[in-house]
Amino acid sequence: MRCRRCAVSLGLLCVLAACGYHTAGHAVTLPEEVHTIAIPAFANQTQSYKIEQTLTGAVVREMVMRTNYHILNQSSDSADATLRGIVLSTYSAPLTYDSQTGRAATVMVTVSMRVSLTDRHGKVLYQNPSYVFHEQYQVSQDLTSFFEEDSPALERLSREFAKTLVSNILEGF
């Protein structure tokens, strides 16, 4: 009886191991001839001060950390591909209010962007016209120790955007 159970378990294990299951999106979809990627500063169509610098810097850092591509910080004829981005809008809205004071207690920041990666001949390798990212932060209720929390929230949002963008480019989503 014990041998039968072991045989059935071993057979089931072999069937499950050979079922063809694999995680999607782990193949790099960029052409083999791409070795250098230029990432010039994103354009900013909003009133948010330096948001394009924060987003561009996060994307450059993520590309350097996760890939072996040579990254340029500006457009160049020597680049095999160029990643361009446009910050389309930023919006902040209160999520919760303090019941004692009626002031906002939590705020949600929303940023929308358009991104495209083109090769040196203008062929689109990747594009997403509607990235939308959200990040929330707490508003300090103590005015003596008030700390503006929107900048750290935008930093967190930028890092999350960069991780997602680089994954999408590399994995073809």
Tell me about this structure.
The chain is an alpha/beta fold and 173 residues long. It has one domain: 3-Layer(aba) Sandwich (Rossmann fold). Helices cover 31% and strands 32% of the residues. The protein has helices at 2-17, 51-66, 150-171; strands spanning 36-38, 43-44, 70-72, 81-97, 104-119, 124-138. Strands 1, 2, 3, 4, 5 and 6 form a 6-stranded mixed β-sheet that branches. Helix 2 (51-66) crosses helix 3. The chain is flat, with a radius of gyration of 23 Å. The model is unreliable at 19-27 (pLDDT under 50).
Question: Features of this protein?
Answer:
single chain; 173 residues; alpha/beta; Rossmann fold; six-stranded mixed beta sheet; 32% strand; flat
Question: Topology, pairings included?
Answer:
Blueprint: H1 2-17, E1 36-38, E2 43-44, H2 51-66, E3 70-72, E4 81-97, E5 104-119, E6 124-138, H3 150-171
Parallel strand pairs: 1-3, 1-4, 2-4
Antiparallel strand pairs: 4-5, 5-6
Helix pairs in contact: 2-3
